[in-house]
Amino acid sequence: MTSSLLLQLIINGLIVGTLYGVVAMCFVLIYKSTQVVNFAQGEFLLIGAWTCWWLVTSMELPFWFAFPMTFVFMMVFGIVLQMVVLRPLIGEPVISVIMVTIGLSIFFQAVIKSIFGVWAQPFPEIFPVKSVDVFGLAVQPAYLMSLVVSLVIMVAFAWFFKYSRMGLAMRATAFNQQVAQSLGISVKNVFAMAWAISAMVSALAGVVVGMVNGVSSALSFFGIKVFPAVIVGGLDSIVGAIIGGLIIGLLENLAEYADGQFLHLGNLYTVAPFYVLVIILMIKPYGLFGTKTIERV
Amino acid sequence: MAEPAVKPAADEIILSVNNIEVVYDDVILVLRGVSLDVPKGRIVTLLGPNGAGKSTTLKAISGLLGTEDGEVTRGNITFMGEEIANRAPEEIVRRGIFQVMEGRRIIEDMTVTENLRLGAFTRKDGAAAIRNDIEMVFDYFPRLRERVGLAGYLSGGEQQMLAIGRAMMARPKMILLDEPSMGLSPLLVKEVFAIIEKLCRDTGVTILLVEQNARMALKIAEFGYIMESGKIVLDGAKDDLVNNEDVKEFYLGGDKERKSFKNLKSYKRRKRWL
Ligand SMILES: Nc1ncnc2c1ncn2[C@@H]1O[C@H](COP(=O)(O)OP(=O)(O)OP(=O)(O)O)[C@@H](O)[C@H]1O
Ligand SMILES: [Mg+2]
Asked: Considering the entire predicted model, what is its pTM?
């Protein structure tokens, strides 16, 4: 019985971990290509989830239509946010930009609360069944969808950065903005694109989590969990972000297991990732996959 | 009935820099009235000691000055008859000028092929044409073909070749080359310069070559400008420069101590390309 509970928790950990990984990737994308530490990443989940919820409940659109519409909205939102708020800050000290993203986070929280209230709202049932059976384990269909969607996004990211013209341009910009400009790349467009992709993909995670837990400000706490994931993986590594996400997802659930079975501390689930963060940073200050610059000898 | 050889007509000047002043950070005046003309399809070299303002001149042309808080505050730069001073670098690349910056500046965490594909960023003529051109670059630089790892692990010479190859990928009308000989062995310098010359001959691309290695530069260039402290102090056709006593002494003379033109006498610009 306890071993099947453990297995269930591990599966949960992996599924939530891939989702953390996806959001962490979005965070890294912005950090790498624009050098902005985006403390409003969690609010992207929030805004995305509420937008989709509103389209489905108030506008009564079918989910399969509302979902892509949320995407389009978030893409535009990301671009506008970059152009209006962040573009004028290019060249300002890092700490100013950080203050602005923290400000944005608080601002979005407040606006969302004033529009949608403070109570969690359930997503209408999207799937006809409550749970599906995977190798004898009960898995919520939303989780399954989350896993599939996360994997698709990861493959899409890999393809985008390896083969597409804009993906290469984004990597070039991350490497050195002046070099990128000398190749004819518009750094402004790359920045806007990074924010657009990041907002869009985070929203997707927001919708998926919202479908499982209901839509509420707690979603932005999901975004905060992403920080340990990102830092464990190394701030500027996309692969590191995914692995960091998986580690955090697993850890949370293992901590819950240990807590429930033996320790009875109560809230290890929430704090464990942060303990691990501290320990990892003590051993590897640049994270597990942080920048190593090539040095020729 | 032999007419005297027709001089290049004015419309053959593809790039014309007229009396530009460049200021960094709103206060540091670096170029103090620089003028130069580059005729289409030729190699022109810009020589001068460290800190003369050669790289600044190239960045003024390519628009990269803006990325370093620099600005053209006087004069103008025309490319194919159109004003391009202080335009965004991406616009200037699209117009057909591509700068290979000093110190190679390839993207170290990408492969050779990815670097080359990025050179073609502004092109719209499709993947097949770009693949073709990658092959063409490999034909010019066969040793790049075998390098499959990250560009950061290439030797200095190979990185320079990659930087030039990446410029070719843009199919530019004009390439600005900033000190391609820097840090290369004499043998490798020869090899790279031979390729630059061949490139100009084969494709008709115009080249403005900045160099400290005057001897090598004047082997492949047809015309040269010499710059000191933000001013052009001398210019002339290759042979005039090679035979000029002062150039011989200060720029071509073995390892004799280098003095400055300015302390010697003040040059008036005697002629330009025309
Ligand atoms: N971004 C910048 N900000 C301020 N001053 C600069 C900047 N770049 C260059 N300078 C100054 O402008 C002058 C000319 O520099 P530039 O790089 O154009 O010289 P150069 O002729 O290319 O020299 P080298 O042969 O050493 O490359 C130097 O005195 C340099 O200190
Ligand atoms: Mg220079």
From this structure: 0.85
